[in-house]
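Z., the sequence and structure:
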Amino acid sequence: MGIIDVIAKGTISNSVSRVAFGVQFITVKANVVEANRTLTTVLPDQYRMKITDEQDFIFQINRPHMSSKVGNITMNFLTKWSMERLQVVSMEIPVGGAPIPTPGGTSFAPHDVKVKDFIAASVRFDNNNVPTISLTSGQQSSLLLEGLTAVEAAQRKIGLNIEGF
């Protein structure tokens, strides 16, 4: 059973005043130029700008409008295009989770920690309602479903066409 269905059954309290549905799609690229080139292909024409080797690029648009599912509720439909620098840190932890004492006083020997850097083009959707009076469980699930449906349409509209979404 999906989370939205569980919420519809009243699992969450009715004291909720805001719900949000967010999803982020990324693709790892070899460098900043490739990440920016990828981003420009999915920026709508009216916002498309020339970017090449700029770093830490972020562009965000909010298209708020009244909810089609719940009366008198304004929904925010945010889309953010960005070049992300990601870092994956992995470490070996012994069975039982006890740290390994080292002569330098650190918890892990230097060879136990591995860091890998990535550059990625990212598109994030954050659909949420403007805070309001308490939402019933039915309203919460309706707004979340509206957010999910909007993400599905938006990612196809800008050309992401994520299979299975």
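The longest helix spans residues 137-157. Residues 18-91+105-130+150-157 form one domain.

Let me know what you think.
H.
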